[in-house]
Amino acid sequence: MTKYIFFTGGVVSSVGKGVTAAALGRLLKARGLSVAVQKLDPYINVDPGTMSPYQHGEVFVTEDGAETDLDLGHYERFIDINASQASNVTTGRVYAEVIARERRGDYLGGTIQVIPHITNEIKRNIRLVAEKSQADVVLVEVGGTVGDIESLPFMEALRQMRSDVGRKNTLYVHVTFLPYISASRELKTKPTQHSVRELRGIGIHPDVIIARADHHIPKEHIKKIALFCDVRKRAVIPAVTSDILYNIPLLLEETGLGDYVIDRLKLKKANAPELSDWQKMIAKIRSSKTKIRIGIVGKYVELHDAYMSVREALYHAGISNGRDVEVEWIHSGDLEKGKGWTQFEGLDGIVVPGGFGERGVEGKILAARWARENKVPYLGLCLGMQVMCIEFARHVLHSDEPNSTEFDSHTEHPVISLMPDQHALEDMGGTMRLGSYPCALMPGSKAAAAYDAELVQERHRHRWEFNNSYRNELEAAGMVFSGLSPDGRLVEIAELKDHPFMLGSQFHPEFKSRPNRPHPLFDAFLRTAVARQEGRLAAANGTPPVEAEEVTAVS
């Protein structure tokens, strides 16, 4: 039978439940076990697809087209698995399904209540992950903090799961925070005790407590937590903030958490952990590396989580290319006002990520122009590809008129226009082109060299596309449409011929990057940026520079 591990959080939000779950998933997979994941979010939105990035951070997209919580990105990057539609469930989705059944008369006139109808639907969704994945272990994280009124139905459902599938098949992990009082120079365990008391009041007794802290946790504190929270001392796991995100699985392994979970759930098929590749990766991260500055030009840069997967994909490429990537966060709205241009000094590449709405778009177009004119490596993602095409069209047509109908519905040159199947849609949520689609690559292009393949699968999230009416004109001027849908109808990748690396993708490659396997486009982009950096340094030292083109092709 599938084993279930449930993660709850206490004391404060953003305590690291998602990363902890992902790290434990890596430890279980390292022991030869198959792992599936799920995030239960208490908000009433059906999914985060219509939520502002300022409130929610990025929307992570799965292979099968689900718009999900950003924690699923952590799961995929750490565990190296693909999440699915079933991997993210919200209160809104649960209630929408129950109400739809009530409207159909499925409940035969019964009174619909939180218990049992809502909790049964939550449990059905949890079991669905196990049924679809056939995984040995399913990791289930509940968003928010114990005590939040909106999370109570989820907590009750988790409590019932122990009775439904048996104690030997369930394990409850509570992640809490130990605050540090600077005046007395000590960590406090009392908030954790209160948090566990609140959890036990709901009917859930934690099997494991992960004690998060920004300072060393003395053994006396571990003993105190074990005593007052009625948890075995071995099951109180210290988790001090790590300087390297991807080192957390190794830190947790050192505490014995992996072995404890195996013993507690009696996972007899588990092998000895094989973490040598992960350890080599961490050693590579820790090794002394030259820093390289890469700009991310976006409209939500005040909240870095809005571009979490983009940032992580750059770090992954940095590991592969022996560079410590320093991200320069550049607000595209400032560029429109003539501000922020000093941030471009010393950059060896820029990334322009996706986004929606007119605000800040002209700033992104200006950034694309700067990269084109200065021959600086450029990687455009979704909207980043579109603004690259708009900027090039303005250059070719000697006009400021080329635009996207998303921002100017009356433009004379709609270089970017609404996809045909999007015209009749009225609902905004879950109606974009979502999920994985094939892309055929042009032989001899930078894209084909990066992938070293003829056909790839990539994840999409967009409504607008390149207008094919402008293909011939822009191709004649030097734009290469190096990635197309197999039927040739949709432009998936555009790049400039006479440029070291100026490439944009309609899809989101950042979602498929892994710390030990960077995405090919990010890898090729950073390789070119490294060549530019080495060329600048060589020129400063009076030695011949390395040509950027020499590093864009894969060996």
Please provide a written account of the structure.
Helix content is 37%, strand content 21%. The chain is α/β, with parallel strands linked by helices. The chain folds into 2 domains: 3-281, P-loop containing nucleotide triphosphate hydrolases (Rossmann fold), CATH 3.40.50; 288-549, Rossmann fold, CATH 3.40.50.880. The protein has a 9-stranded mixed beta sheet with strand order 13-12-14-15-23-22-21-18-19, sandwiched between helices. The protein is globular and about 70 Å long. 49% of the residues are buried.
Cα distance spanning the termini: 45 Å
Mean pLDDT, as a whole number?
Answer: 92
Question: For this entry, what is the oligomeric state of its chains?
Answer: single chain
How many strands in all? 23
Spatial extent as radius of gyration: 25 Å
Query: How would you characterize the largest beta sheet?
Result: 9 strands, mixed
User: Can you tell me the CATH topology of the largest domain?
Assistant: Rossmann fold
Give the strand content: 15-25%
Question: What name goes with the CATH superfamily of the largest domain?
Answer: P-loop containing nucleotide triphosphate hydrolases
Strand order of the largest sheet: 13-12-14-15-23-22-21-18-19
Helix content: 25-40%
Overall domain count:
2
Short description:
With 555 residues, this protein is α/β, with parallel strands linked by helices. It has 18 helices and 23 strands.
Give keywords.
2 domains, 21% strand, Rossmann fold, 555 residues, 7-stranded parallel beta sheet, 18 helices, 9-stranded mixed beta sheet
